[in-house]
Write the structure tokens for this entry.
Amino acid sequence: MRVPFTKMHGLGNDYVYFDCVRNPGLIPAPAAVAPALSDRHCGIGGDGIVLILPHREADFQMRMFNADGSEAEMCGNAIRCVGKLVYDRGYHQSETVRIMTGNGIRTLQLTVAGGVCTHARVAMGEPKLSGPQIPIALAKERIQGEPITVAGTTYAFTGVSMGNPHCVIFVDEITDRQVLQHGPLLEVHPLFPRRINVEFVKLLNRREVAMRVWERGSGETMACGTGACAVGVACVLNGQTDRDVTVHLRGGDLRIQWDERDGQVYMTGPATHAFDGEVEL
């Protein structure tokens, strides 16, 4: 059976999207097909796949599966692309859209130009900071400056959940060794019962940081929206930046705001359509 798909990305964090709004059973075994479709040599190529579905409590639902087939709770870059697709295809007329994720409903405010969505501001919810909530195998209310050792190197990390778990590490310079060698070791460290996303962060000034990310189940990606949010939170907790910070990722920039009034983290960034196609499933 040939199935239509759409390739989209947020700052190079790319996924294969399946429009299941009118046919929720279009992809019956997403975890099984995600690795082959994500393969950049023998498949379509991407950091995973995303299913866009109807939902009774929200305007739409997104389910996402990493390149290794594991299902993820949330992706900040992917959810902006979901908002773009449902608006651009006329499924949703309002520039405000509510999307159910694996970690609850997220509200997007779309930026529209020429009848298409170009950017979105996402209310990402309040960060979770305690060990059991993230989860991290430490019975602490806040995981901050916590030592962790891999391959003979000890880092100090801050733990944050933005619907999925993150380990934020501040470094003087970001290197391939940190990301590509230590990232996969940190992902599966015994402290992290559900594995973890790892961000290496270089401070630039009070309003800007640079980061690279090793994503759980996908490896290094060009960008990570929830990771950028976790970085923004970790920067504030450690007194490194203001609450409104630009995060420079390999694929581009995200604006992260941790609102002191409502406690929510807001992420603003682009959503880009790459191409449409069909695949045999």
